[in-house]
# Entry
Amino acid sequence: MTLPPAASPARASEPETDKSELIAPAADIFDIDGIRAELFAALTAGAAESEIRKLAVGILGRARDAGREVIATAFAAEPFGSRRTTRSYTYLTDCIVLLAFELATQHLHRLANPTEAERLSVLAVGGYGRGEMAPYSDVDLLFLTPYKITPWAESVIESMLYMLWDLKLKVGHSSRTIRDCVRLGGEDFTIRTAMLECRHLTGDEKLAEDLDRALWKDLFKGTEREFVEAKLEERDSRHEKQGQRYMVEPNVKEGKGGLRDLQSLFWIIRYVHHTDDVSELVGKGVFLPDEYETFVQAERFLWAVRCHMHLVAGRAVEQLTFDMQVDVASRMGYNDRSGRRGVEWFMQAYFHHATSVGDLTRILLTSLEADHTKGAPLLERIFKRQPKVKDGYKVIHGRLAIADDAAFLSDKLNLLRLYEEGLRTGLLIHPEAMRLVKANLHLIDKEFRENPEASKLFLDLLLKHGNPARALTRMNELGFLGTFIPEFEPIVAMMQFNMYHSYTVDEHTIQCIWHLSEIEHGNLTEELPVASTILKEGVNRRILYVALLLHDIGKGRDEDHSILGARITRAVAPRLGLNKKEAETAEWLVRYHLLMSDMAQKRDIADPRTVRDFAKAVQTRERLDLLCVLTVCDIRGVGPSVWNNWKAALLRALYRQTRRALEGGMEDLNRENRGTEARKLLRETLSDWEGGDLRRETTRHYPPYWQGLHVTAHVIFARLLRDIKDDEIKIDIHPDEDRDATRVCFALQDHPGIFSRLAGALALVGANVVDARTFTTKDGYATAAFWLQDQDGHPYEKTRIPRLKDMILKTLRGEVVTRDAIRPKDKLKKREKAFKVPTHITFDNDGSEIFTIIEVDTRDRPGLLYDLTRTLANLNIYIASALIATYGEQVVDTFYVKDMFGLKLHSQPKRDLIERKLRAAIEEGAERAYG
# Structure
């Protein structure tokens, strides 16, 4: 026998939803009348609750899946239709909750004559209460009862929850009375915020109305300032945890400029202004019409991104990881164009919207300060005396404000002077002043840009006040920087889609300038002795700051960004006030800003030819000094973990050798002199050795050995070789703290492919090789030095070294087949698979006097070095040294090689064969890595 649903005032026939807000017809999303009829027609009297729940979950589950499919299909056709999409997911969830309630109250736990205590209201809270749901958002419910919960209400709630859980919905729930809600809301701002967005779903409507009145009368009223301060504190804490808005894998929900920041605005508006409609703030003068439109567009975009992320992942995810960025960009219709990938255009749009959210926050907080809803800034509370400001300015709540807007705008240069006054006084700029600047950016015209006084004011912001990054950040966020220097505008919020850069291009530039100012202030003397000394001794700061500001200005186009950037610098530097000679030097620095980094990391600086070629390119001590400082700041500005002692040691060595060559002449770089000096140093260090042993050691090695290693390595190899026996493998492993790496020295019998064998052993233990050199003694032994880092880019801890040594020995003895053992490790992580790096292989016979340099620029992956060296070994190519420079997902492996006869690779057919074999090894490994 089937049971029809009983009529009841506690039952809503369907959700109270504006059907025009849905992305598809309501009946297509969830035909609530049809599903209700199907559900109750299937029920039979006397069935066990578990059977009824199972039946209900089956019917509701199929309806839910069909509804999700309808919404997803409609959303794919309208990829920016986020408001209608979130409303549609809310409607779908409302229908399911409503029918679960009906089933629980009208069938499973039906009451003929409910008492006053047996009333129950179901409310949606949090984001669900606001009516904003992504595909896999949590379903937050409040079960409200008039008094202490009754057995009947407990049974209804339990049955509902079991059904919702069986439907795989992530339900957050609480059961409270009105008194509980007021008490707990007074103790916990998270609970208070959730209840701020209560929405009645079903059950006793009067109970929900009573709660709403109690909350506004007994909890919200009079606590506006307390609530605002709590939300701002919560926001700051969240930003610190999640990272700033310019981090390249942002958290769309919790990160700076993300949805939670927009929601915080909404909460504050509702709490303070008692409205759900942000557009009402235009009438109240809080937002201008275009600012309200910015709010709408940011909300629309961010919600669209979040919904697409959920659909791509098939679950709730909030971190916009690299692999997710590619999929979401494609779903939202961003295509490759103008030399940039669609995903980069997408992320640039994302960062623009994130910046807009920050602007809106400042504007709203200004209005709250004006009516004292928000407390004065911390700065004002700390300092009782405010700094004296120049005429035309005033201080409001500890912030620099404009005294008279009309007078301020009568002189266009005041737009720049505002930033100068902010740096001079150390005051934050008042949001109303920022608003005025943003609204009048059209005043920055050709005449303004070419005004010598404007150039001087701008350069003074960089050079005089000690905090240039702060000024640039302020100008950039308001669009001033890209308007004053139009060539800078294309790189604003431009994402570099790689794992190397942590920031957008404009933020990277500002970070570089911040590092330069830190060095100038003497804060990094111990960490950066060379750069600090250069700046202390004096350089042309105008050139350095302008070159650093413009060094990446050519990014994002088809042309090499260094060449294009130099051309742009040729036009911009004079406009910023540099004279002809200064502008030429700045142009050279931008054109060659990667030269020193490339030489240090991709070439063997122990080879005199490397230093000689670099010195010829640099030509003067002034250029060397400027380029060295610029290079240090550029690398440090890439991200928080990119700079290390390894890079520092390479750059220091290259700088000092080049400076010596420029000042003392190129003859100082003679190989023979260096070899003689190295042997002399070894004799002094091993003065306790017998004469015969010392003679044997100083004569058993060929010249490259003496030129390519430091005396500490020479001493280690001397001890390893002293009593070595045939077929014996000797290993010395020690941290090289000066280089942030672990140095492994091998001594063993020489044989073809020795370098590959050693590389394979190290790959097998998961070590990252950053530098390696092998040498052959005259009596048939191989000496090899490898510098390693662990997977996190750090030296191996001392406690891990014994196990590392044991694993290497097992591999070298053949107890493990390297090639077979490495393959399972070749897989890339999911987020890393989004990156495809084209392979470039070059041969250079001029960069070294005795070796051919093979440079392989390709996608990094586990086991790559082993694959490359094994390929070269199979072609009878002798590898003398290898340098490994890693840039996120990209790696440049540089090999100094000879053929089997000890000659350079002059034959073009031979080089073509080598390139084909290397490419084949790379492609075979890539197939394994990408699965």
Observations:
- The longest strand covers residues 878-887.
- Residues 1-11 have pLDDT under 50 and may be disordered.
